[in-house]
Specification:
282 residues; Rossmann fold; single chain; 9 helices; 2 domains; six-stranded parallel sheet; six-stranded mixed sheet; 12 strands
C-alpha cells in the first residue's frame, strides 16, 4: 500500500498501542479495494489526550479516528454530535470529521459483540446476561444486548457507582429490561462477558471464577492482545461456547466502514484479507 498526498488517514488513538489489531485488518481491505486510505496507530497517554486529540483531528488529511482504551469516555467532550448508542453507553469508539470540521461520534463495540453471537447461533432474547466491567466496551455490549430482549442483564464492576449509572441509562432506554448491579459470580447466567482488561498480561487475575460457569454458557472476551485468555481456556474446558476478542473486532469493522462512508463488506472478507497471523504476545 502506497501513501501519498491524497491518502485519507484514520488515526487509531489509544495507549498503549502494542495490542492494536485494527490496522492489520483495515489496511489490507483498503489495498484490496483500491481505496486510498490508511489506519495509523497513534499512542496518546491519558494525561495528554485533551491536548493531543483536537490537534490530531485538525490535520487536513485526517478523516476520522478509531478510539480505544483509555479514551472512549473522555473523547465525548470533544464531539458535536453523538449517536443513540453513545447516549446509552457514555462512551465512543469512532469519530468522523464532517465537512464543516465538526466531529460526530458512534459506538460499535456492542454491535460487534452481538454480531459475533449471532454468527455462532446464540440467541439473546430471554436469556440471563452477566457483564463484568462496565467501562466503554462493557456498557456498549450491555446496550446492544439490551436491544435484543434478554431476561436480565447484571453489571459487575469494582466501581459500583459507575455500574449503577449504566444500569439507570439502560432502564431509561429499554423500559422492559431487568437490569441490576451485582457480583461477578457467573452461576446461573447464560451469557457471560469479560469486558475488563484482565487477561492481557500473564500475571492478571481471572475476572471471575470459571468453576462457577454453567457448562452450556456462552463466554465472550474483549481482550485483543491474546487469542485465548486464561478465562476462555477455562471456559472451554468446562464445555462452554467461547468468543475471542478478535471475533468482536472483525464483526464491528463492517459497521465502522459504513460509518466512514466506505463500501460494505463482511467479517469473512476481512478475515481473508487480514494480515494477523496470530495473537501478539501479552
Amino acid at each position: 500500500m502506497m501513501l501519498d498526498g491524497h491518502t485519507r488517514l484514520y488515526a487509531h488513538i489509544g495507549y498503549p498501542t502494542s495490542s492494536f489489531k485494527a490496522p492489520l485488518i483495515y489496511n489490507p481491505y483498503f489495498a484490496a479495494h483500491g481505496i486510498n486510505a490508511a489506519v495509523v496507530p497513534i499512542g496518546v497517554p491519558a494525561a495528554d489526550f485533551d491536548a493531543a486529540f483536537p490537534a490530531i483531528m485538525r490535520f487536513s488529511n485526517i478523516a476520522g479516528a478509531l478510539i480505544t482504551m483509555p479514551h472512549k469516555v473522555t473523547v465525548l467532550r470533544h464531539l458535536a454530535r453523538v449517536s443513540p448508542a453513545i447516549a446509552v453507553t457514555g462512551a465512543c469508539n469512532a469519530v468522523r470529521r464532517e465537512e464543516d470540521g465538526t466531529l460526530s461520534g458512534d459506538m460499535f463495540d456492542g454491535e460487534g459483540f452481538v454480531r459475533g453471537l449471532a454468527r455462532k447461533g446464540q440467541a439473546i432474547a430471554g436469556r440471563r446476561v452477566l457483564i463484568v466491567g462496565v467501562g466503554g466496551a462493557g456498557a456498549a455490549i450491555a446496550a446492544a444486548l439490551a436491544a435484543r430482549g434478554p431476561a436480565l442483564i447484571r453489571l459487575a464492576d469494582l466501581r459500583a457507582e459507575i455500574a449503577g449509572e449504566v444500569a439507570a441509562r439502560l432502564a431509561a432506554h429499554f423500559p422492559g429490561l431487568a437490569a441490576e448491579v451485582g457480583t461477578n459470580d457467573p452461576a446461573g447466567f447464560d451469557i457471560v462477558v469479560n469486558a475488563t482488561p484482565l487477561g492481557m498480561r500473564p500475571e492478571d487475575p481471572l475476572p471471575l471464577d470459571p468453576a462457577r460457569l454453567a457448562p452450556g454458557a456462552f463466554v465472550g472476551e474483549v481482550v485483543l492482545s491474546r487469542e485465548r485468555t486464561p478465562l476462555l481456556e477455562a471456559a472451554a474446558a468446562r464445555g462452554c461456547t467461547i468468543q475471542i476478542g478478535l471475533d468482536m473486532l472483525f464483526e464491528m469493522i463492517p459497521a465502522y466502514l459504513e460509518f466512514f462512508g466506505f463500501p460494505p463488506t463482511t467479517a469473512d472478507e476481512l478475515h481473508a484479507l487480514a494480515t494477523i497471523s496470530g495473537p501478539e504476545p501479552a
